[in-house]
Amino acid sequence: MKKEWKHVEGIRCMRGKDGVLNFGVTDRGRAWKEIMNEENEWDHMTEVNEVEGPIEEATWEEMVLEHTMKIMKGVLWRRIRMLINLDDMQF
After folding, report:
1. In the chain, % of residues over pLDDT 70
2. What pLDDT digit, counting tens, does each position of 3-39 carry?
């Protein structure tokens, strides 16, 4: 059985400060502004453990190689899936 992939894009509703779900674009924008403009309490504690050692910088070649490997993984995955028949019990 072939699975269909669905991509989630954006949000469909947002709950405002009054507790009501807003579905319209303008209502969601209003709810977003209400939520983002309210003051949050902060205890002014920002202590973080220090990390020792040199900072490793990624080179352009490493990034290209990583991207290429992801593409090859997808290609191989598709080719293997075309060769093997899996049913729901095997997954």
Report:
1. 82
2. 666 655 666 788 888 888 888 888 888 888 887 877 6
Cα–Cα distance for residue pair 69/71, rounded to 1 Å: 5
Burial degree of 14 (CB within 10 A; 0-12, 13-18, 19+): middle
Largest CA distance in the chain: 58
Element (H, E) at 36: helix 25-37
* Amino acid type, 71: I
DSSP labels, 37-50 = HS------------
Q: Is residue 15 helix, strand or coil?
A: strand
